[in-house]
Amino acid sequence: MQKSVLMSFLLIACSGEQGFGQGKSSPAASGGAGIIEVFPEEVVWNRVVIGNPDSEGFRISSVGESPLKVTLVTLSDAGQTQADADSAPEAVFYEIRPFEPEKHTVPFDLDPGESAEFVVMARFLAPGTTTGQVRIRSNDTEAEGPAPGDFRLPLSATGVEPSGGGDDTGEPPADDTGDEPADDTGD
Q1: Which residues contact 7 (CB under 8 A, 6 or more apart)?
Q2: 4: how many CB neighbours lie within 10 A of its CB?
Q3: In this predicted structure, what is the pLDDT of residue 171?
Q4: Could you give the 3-state DSSP secondary structure of residue 162?
Q5: Is residue 19 part of a domain?
Q6: Each residue's pLDDT tens digit, 136-164
Q7: Residue 65 belongs to what domain range?
Q8: Whole-model pTM above 0.90?
Q9: Residues 6 or more apart from 140 whose CB is under 8 A from it?
Q10: What is the number of alpha carbons within 13 Å of residue 132 lying toward its C-beta?
Q11: Average pLDDT, whole number, for the chain?
Q12: In sequence order, what DSSP letters do the residues of 80-143 get, joined into one string?
């Protein structure tokens, strides 16, 4: 009798209705899925002088309880610039690299609380504005993107002509072209 009671108890405990024996492991049991946080939410270059490459950065952080496994960091849309109507368009965003390549060359893992910083380069051939995207693939299946674990970081940049040439206003830096010194009021 005790054997049949014990057997009945085990069958009930292991049934699918109890959530046991379904063959799927929970994220915690299988090592878990990381949680990604990317800062800033958009990388912006407000003023890229034509012909002078400029850089901006972003940070990938692991904010979950399990390690974040980053398997891809690449430009998925490099934007475009064109010197003139007769020339072929060229990419504005042309390079992405880790700040610490010895630690964060793809693929890499970030333990909870750790971060990795990256630099993106931009250059313009003519004045204009463009947008692009960095694609980041990780084990965070809840990351916003076109597919699970596929995060997209927006990029935007504005290319401007070099300043100078006698248009100095002598005003504070926001309005100044830099050709004349501002009045010194410290005397």
Answers
A1: none
A2: 8
A3: 52
A4: coil
A5: no
A6: 999 999 988 899 999 999 999 999 999 85
A7: 32-160
A8: no
A9: 33, 34, 35, 36, 64, 68, 149, 151
A10: 28
A11: 80
A12: -B-SSTTSPPB-SEEEEEESSHHHHSSSEEE-TT-EEEEEEEE--SSSEEEEEEEEEEES-TTS
The number of distinct structural domains making up the chain is 1
- Distance of alpha carbon 112 from alpha carbon 114, whole angstroms: 6
How much of the chain is helix, strand and coil, in % rounded to 5?
Answer: 10, 40, 50
> Are the CB atoms for 132 and 96 separated by under 8 Å?
no
Paired residues of 110 in beta bridges: 68
How far apart, in Å, do the first and last CA atoms of the chain sit? 104
Q: How far is CA 95 from CA 26, 78, 105, 152, in A?
A: 38, 9, 14, 16
Within a domain: 67: yes
Q: Is the dihedral of CA 107, 74, 58, 98 positive or negative?
A: positive
d(CA 69, CA 67): 6
**Domain assignment of residue 172, yes or no:** no
State the Cα–Cα distance between residues 153 and 135, nearest whole angstrom.
Answer: 7
Q: Return the CATH number at 115.
A: 2.60.40.10
Residue 164 confidence (pLDDT):
59
Contacts for 184 with CB less than 8 Å, ≥ 6 apart:
none
Query: What is the structure's pLDDT at 83?
Result: 84
